[in-house]
Specification:
Structural class: alpha+beta
Radius of gyration: 27 Å
CATH architecture of the largest domain: Roll
CATH class of the largest domain: Mainly Beta
Shape: elongated
Largest sheet: 10 strands, antiparallel
Distance between the termini: 69 Å
Number of strands: 26
Strand content: 15-25%
Bound molecules: flavin mononucleotide
Number of helices: 14
CATH superfamily of the largest domain: Electron Transport, Fmn-binding Protein, Chain A
Number of domains: 3
């Protein structure tokens, strides 16, 4: 059950991850595990079970308090998994609103971003480890789990918000990217698409002759920052500002100890370092959100210079890989909001709703419901989507089609669309994690040859006034519901549409015939038809 906004304490946003975890626990959404759990072989499989075997409403965030690893080492910090988006209810707790209010909160945050404030220090600097402190153990101090044991080639950070900045404007990017642990002081990063913030920054720093880019990985922050970090916001928008808008208050930032990047002062852990801009090495395979292992590929890496953290940090991870997952939930909600905003900003007021189904990894299928005003609304929306949000397939449907119900989509595709007229294939921006773009081993476009990626644009709106939906009229269905209840039959969960309605093509004559029929006077219609006979040649 989602917590209503009025149930929440004080109106202040969560100061840190700790306060948020307390709220999860009070809401009955936290599963504590105190027995020893091997982070490399047991943790992710255990939590994965809730995505393969439970109803979404029963999923929880998990707090592991006694962590070991495949070599029997013990870790002195707990780990929280699925805390940001184990379910829609959990996401709503992260925004201190109800599930229904989430889209409005996102709209508001994008329209009213709040700039961060800079503070001289914060809890994230309670421990500062660098130089000799990190000689023996650096990344292995952190309980970084293996996400897909049996297939992944290393532990990877997953809730890792990579910070980098534009060399000219100084605008910070906060983007969530996996981080492959390669050595005590070396961690890989795989920014999969050319337009992604960190990838742009690496290329910009390189073009300006810098052989390394300052970078930092932020782990464990209040949810608003994570929600912004995983969302494709325009490149000239800083995620810290949108996170402030989501939180309703400015995010406090403090400067790293190795360079001048700004990180949340309330974070649990920050790993600082530099990314060589002109060297790549192999990264992967890693289980990814499209539901397959992402092939090994050349990519960048960071050389670690410092780890700063709280006295008692909590490590945080996302459960990603096969959808649905925490990743498909957290990205799906953010992308839906960003895409809706993108269409509205382009003047498409006819757009009622956008949805990226989780089974498409909240990426592959983009569904848009419109109240059509002009004949070419759907065509122009599809053209605009193809520049950024099409995924693999974008489908625009009419206002009365429930875009959360696959059966309603099949209905629209079957009878509101003609492929020769309403379907187009267009080139779209490359997304290297899509396993269908090229076979394993072939270039995925990180450098060198860029494989082609295409998207299907489908206008499944009705092209002219249609006859009514062939279900009994509303008054008859309402009568039937009363009868159903009188008979004591099982509770109904009605799917839209559950009654017939007019779609523009229904003459007064046809309406009258139906009314006559419902009164039992259908012979009147039969008589009329006798009078209108035609003779075949
Ligand atoms: C759990 C998780 C892991 C992710 N890992 C990656 C990754 O390794 N590479 C990538 O390109 N995108 C990854 N993403 C998607 C990006 O976070 C997302 O596209 C984000 O908008 C990028 O932001 P930016 O362009 O501002 O940097 C991940 C998302 C989630 C939820």
């Amino acid at each position: 059950m989602a917590t209503a906004a009025s149930d929440l304490p004080s109106g202040q946003y969560y100061r840190d991850l700790n306060e948020y975890i307390d709220t999860l626990e009070r809401a009955g959404k936290l599963q504590r595990v105190t027995r020893p759990i091997d982070k490399d072989t047991q943790m992710h499989p255990l939590v994965r079970l809730q995505f393969r075997g439970l109803e979404e409403k029963d999923r929880k965030a998990w707090l592991f308090e006694n962590i070991t690893d495949a070599k029997g080492r013990k870790y002195d910090m707990p780990l929280v998994l699925c805390a940001m988006a184990g379910s829609s209810d959990i996401y709503a707790l992260g925004l201190q609103c109800t599930v229904e209010e989430i889209p409005r909160r996102w709209d508001h945050a994008q329209a009213h971003p709040i700039a961060p404030v800079i503070v001289s220090s914060g809890p994230v600097h309670e421990q500062i480890l660098r130089g000799d402190d990190l000689k023996e153990r650096c990344l292995s101090r952190l309980p970084i789990p293996i996400s897909t044991p049996g297939f992944d080639n290393a532990p990877y950070t997953t809730a890792s918000h990579w910070i980098s900045k534009d060399p000219d404007s100084g605008l910070h990017n906060v983007g969530n990217y996996r981080g492959m642990v390669k050595a005590e002081d070396r961690i890989g990063v795989y920014p999969a698409s050319p337009g992604y913030g960190m990838r742009r920054h690496i290329e910009m720093w390189r073009e300006r002759g810098h052989d390394r880019l300052p970078a930092a990985i932020v782990i464990g922050v209040p949810p608003a920052i994570s929600y912004a970090a995983v969302t494709r916001l325009p490149n000239d928008v800083c995620e810290y500002d949108v996170a402030g808008g989501l939180a309703g208050q400015a995010i406090e930032l403090t400067q790293c100890v190795s360079h001048d990047l700004l990180v949340p002062a309330q974070a649990q852990i920050v790993v600082e370092g530099f990314v060589p801009t002109n060297i790549q090495e192999m990264e992967g395979p890693f289980g990814e959100f499209p539901g397959y292992m992402a092939a090994r590929d050349y990519s960048w890496f960071m050389e670690v210079t410092a780890i700063t953290m709280r006295k008692k940090p909590i490590y945080q991870a996302f459960l990603s890989q096969f959808p649905p997952s925490e990743s498909s939930k957290i990205r799906g909600i953010g992308w839906t909001a960003a895409c809706f905003d993108y269409l509205k900003a382009a003047g498409f007021d006819c757009v009622q709703e956008v949805h990226f189904p989780e089974t498409s990894g909240s990426f592959g299928v983009c569904l848009v419901r419109i109240r059509r005003e002009k004949d070419d609304d759907a065509t122009r929306i599809l053209d605009h989507l193809s520049k950024k949000f099409v995924g693999k397939m974008a489908i625009v449907v009419d206002e009365d089609v429930d875009i959360h119900d696959p059966n309603a989509i099949y209905w629209a595709l079957s009878y509101a669309m003609q492929p020769h007229r309403d379907v187009r294939v267009v080139d779209i921006p490359l997304m290297a994690l899509d396993p269908s773009i090229a076979p394993p081993g072939a270039s995925r476009g990180l450098t060198g040859e860029k494989p082609r990626m295409s998207g299907l644009l489908i206008d499944a709106t009705r092209d002219w006034p249609y006859p009514p939906v062939s279900l009994p009229g509303k008054e008859f269905m309402e009568g039937a519901i009363a009868l159903w209840q009188e008979l004591g039959l099982p509770e109904l969960k009605l799917r839209k549409p559950w009654f017939g309605y007019n779609l523009g093509s229904w003459s007064a004559d046809e309406a009258q015939e139906a009314a006559l029929a419902a009164r039992g006077d259908y012979f009147v219609t039969g008589e009329k038809q006798r009078g209108e006979r035609r003779t075949l040649d």
